[in-house]
Amino acid sequence: MKKPNLLHILFTFLLFHCLNDAMANQPLFKIVSQNLHQFYDDKRNAGKGKVLSAKKYNDRINQLVEKISSEFNLADVIAFQEIENISILQKVSVQLQKKYNTSYQSILIEGNDISGMDVGYLVNTNFKVESVKALFKNHTFKNSGESLFSRPPLAIDVCLTECLTIVNVHLRSMKGLKSKRLQKRISLKRRLQAETLANWIDKFQRQLPEKKLIVVGDFNALSPSDPYVDIMGTIIGKPDQSHPRWKSSDLIYTDLINTSYLVSIDKRYSYRYKKANQLLDYLLISQNLQQSIKAINYTSIDYKFSDHAAMKATFAIR
């Protein structure tokens, strides 16, 4: 048996440590997702949205600014759900620049929600935003005039040294599922939303296999599935074929990774319903991002701020 060469051993040792150091020195990318629980402004707009008093509105702005600076640690990308318009994000961005010398781009495309709620982003200006697109904005439900997505998923491409595609979602809630009159219709809409998004994910990964994908937000979906439709399983690529009443086919060739399973079970929740912990907010990633994960966690629920916890993630990027 040939003895190992001492120089070869030394070279291997040094190479291993150099690679580890290179990984350790990679820049970190921080992303947060937060449902803001009906963040309206103080102006009357079309639709059925609320109007806050000027004081209440400014208090909410200041509260959000402080939350971003402290608990969100001035993350690079913050994906919001339940925010009324881009003016709110712009006002938050101005305050963050004044108070913390951190500059953010505000991104929001008005959706179809009659109450005025949308999804949007704050993106640190160190990142170049290559594209912004509201997905499925004109898709209708059962060929009717009703939109399939009240809050169309908002896709952005952000680039530092490498690029990431991020999709911010806020899917149809489970409200009404126990109604015999509404159950089938609501379940169908939720299933079609999940299948439409899953088909887009599969097409994206087939056409751009080298691209890195994050799908994040309030999915209004349980894990394990509710008794009617397996929303998360469908979007990840592993739909439950035994439990739900209305089943989806496996529409994704290369499954996404549900990062919530990396969080300890006692802290794996983002919402409380009738004093029970629920998981409604998720961060899903393409498999080519798996080795880049550095940290995943949920914050505690601050009911003075929102009825949802935030999900925070850190990745090493090139």
Please outline what is shown here:
The protein is an alpha+beta fold and 318 residues long. It is 25% helix and 26% strand.
Written overview of the protein:
It is a single chain. Helix content is 25%, strand content 26%. It is α+β, with helices and mostly antiparallel strands. It has a single domain, classed as Endonuclease/exonuclease/phosphatase (Deoxyribonuclease I, Chain A), CATH 3.60.10.10. The strands form three sheets. The protein has a six-stranded mixed β-sheet with strand order 3-4-2-1-14-13, covered by helices on one side. Strands 5-6-7-8-12-9 form a six-stranded mixed β-sheet, with no helix packed on it. Strands 10-11 form a two-stranded antiparallel ribbon. The longest helix has 25 residues, at 183-207. It is globular. The relative contact order is 0.13. Mean pLDDT is 92; it is low at 1-23.
Tertiary shape? globular
- Biggest β-sheet description: 6 strands, mixed
- The rounded Rg comes to 21 Å
Number of strands: 14
- Order of H and E elements: HEHEHEEEEEHEHEEEEEE
Distance between the termini: 41 Å
Side by side, the strands of the main sheet go 3-4-2-1-14-13
Write down the CATH topology: Deoxyribonuclease I, Chain A
Uncertain runs: 1-23
Secondary structure class reads alpha+beta
**Total separate domains:** 1
DSSP strand (E) fraction? 25-35%
CATH class: Alpha Beta
